[in-house]
Write a structure and sequence with these properties.
Strands 7-5-4-3-9-10 form a six-stranded parallel beta sheet, sandwiched between helices. Strands 1-2 form a two-stranded antiparallel sheet. Helix content is about 35%, strand content about 15%. The protein has about 220 residues and is an alpha/beta fold. It is globular, with a radius of gyration of 19 Å. It has two domains: about 60 residues, no CATH class; about 130 residues, Rossmann fold, CATH 3.40.50.450.
Length: about 220
């Protein structure tokens, strides 16, 4: 058996694929060979399989190129960036939502997440972005406009971002956040899903893209 990756290198790698518990939760088949059958993509290795491969050194020095190909690395560098997105309402976070979000962001940092994407809107976006900054995330703002490009009345213009993307129509902006992240956090204003709600629309889009969604509900 090949020598395992040294701790410094192994800690930089992360598996972009789902774990078996999540696969069973959403109804994706977990196969006997350790792979998971996902809609649209097909067979992918489970996160557990990736971890076993690293720990047992199945790739080793001679297989480093294959490991990099599997994780879709660029410039032969280990992946060490995990992105989480946020969607919330202009009404802002209730105190219990704010506390739970702060705790969950700390948890995500411990799981290797490094980048936080938000819509730079007044209310929950601005509050969540500040919490993410305090937790040590790299902040990426996706500002939005209404029907007219110059109509940015609901933009928060947060000043502590590390990156600010092009201003886009709010619906397009929301889909961009989902597309660029591995997981979404949502803080809706109510506990019941709504049709005419930007937050719930974003949640539905994320689910269609098979992204994990962590919903922090307001109190009953």
């Amino acid at each position: 058996m090949n020598e395992p990756l040294d701790d410094e290198i192994a800690s930089l790698y992360w598996c972009p694929y789902p774990d078996e518990a999540y696969a069973r939760k959403v109804g994706w088949p977990v196969n006997t060979d350790g792979t998971i059958t996902t809609p649209g993509i097909g067979h992918v290795p489970s996160r557990e399989l990736c971890e076993i491969a690293e720990l047992e050194g199945l790739y080793g020095e001679t297989g480093r190129t294959e490991l990099e190909r599997l994780y879709r690395l660029e410039d032969k560098r280990p992946i060490k960036r995990r992105h989480v997105g946020f969607t919330g309402t202009r009404k802002g976070l209730q105190s219990c939502q704010k506390l739970e979000l702060a705790e969950y962001l700390v948890y995500l940092k411990g799981q290797g997440f490094t980048h936080f994407h938000h819509g730079d809107a007044i209310g929950a976006d601005a509050q969540a972005a500040r919490l993410a900054k305090q937790a040590g995330f790299y902040l990426i703002a996706h500002p939005g406009h209404l029907r007219k490009k110059e109509d940015t009345r609901f933009r928060a213009f947060t000043s502590f971002n590390d990156e600010v993307r092009e201003v886009k129509m709010v619906g397009v902006r929301d889909r961009d956040i989902v597309d660029e992240t591995e997981q979404m956090i949502a803080t809706p204003a109510g506990r019941t899903e709504e049709v005419r709600s930007g937050t719930w629309t974003t949640v539905r889009y994320a689910r269609k893209q098979f992204k994990a969604v962590h919903i922090i509900y307001p109190p009953k």
